[in-house]
Design goal:
Order of helices and strands: EHEEEEEHEE
Strand content: 35-45%
Strand order of the largest sheet: 3-4-5-6-7-8
Number of helices: 2
Number of domains: 1
Shape: globular
Number of strands: 8
Distance between the termini: 23 Å
Length: about 140
């Protein structure tokens, strides 16, 4: 799948994403469905694999833009970003940014996640630690 060319919101996260090339983010196949029932949009768990990492997303939002989203970020992505934040330089010895291959999760390895919850509305929202009561599929 084609990527995002110079998506400005990615650059806000650049300090946390290690040596990833944020000027051209590419994604693997994105596939999911969304349900709308009684004015509420529900997004079941969605796996996102890209050149900046593997993430999982689920949640719900109503027609008044009240939202409750859950994002799962592997600790490996967070540790890599922290390492580059502490030790600096995002470029390799030859001046290139890091590997731009799509990062997939190994189904045979246990992955630990940081669970974030975004809740509120477009003007007044909070980002906290937490996961859903049950994982949406």
């Amino acid at each position: 799948m084609d990527g995002l060319k110079t998506m400005s919101t990615c650059f806000y996260c650049s300090d946390y994403l290690g040596d990833k090339d944020l000027s051209s983010v590419r994604f693997d196949t994105l596939q999911n469905h969304m349900d709308i029932k009684n004015g509420q949009l529900t997004i079941p768990n969605m796996t996102i694999e890209s050149t900046i990492g593997h993430f999982e997303l689920s949640g719900k939002q109503d027609m008044n833009f009240n939202m409750e989203y859950f994002i799962r970020i592997p600790w490996a992505v967070i540790k890599e970003g922290a390492r580059y934040t502490v030790f600096g330089n995002k470029k390799t010895a030859d001046g290139q940014t890091g590997d731009d291959e799509i990062i997939e999760v190994d189904p045979n390895k246990k992955v630990r996640y940081l669970n974030l919850k975004i809740h509120g509305n477009m003007e007044d929202y909070k980002i906290t630690l937490g996961k859903g009561k049950k994982r949406m599929r």
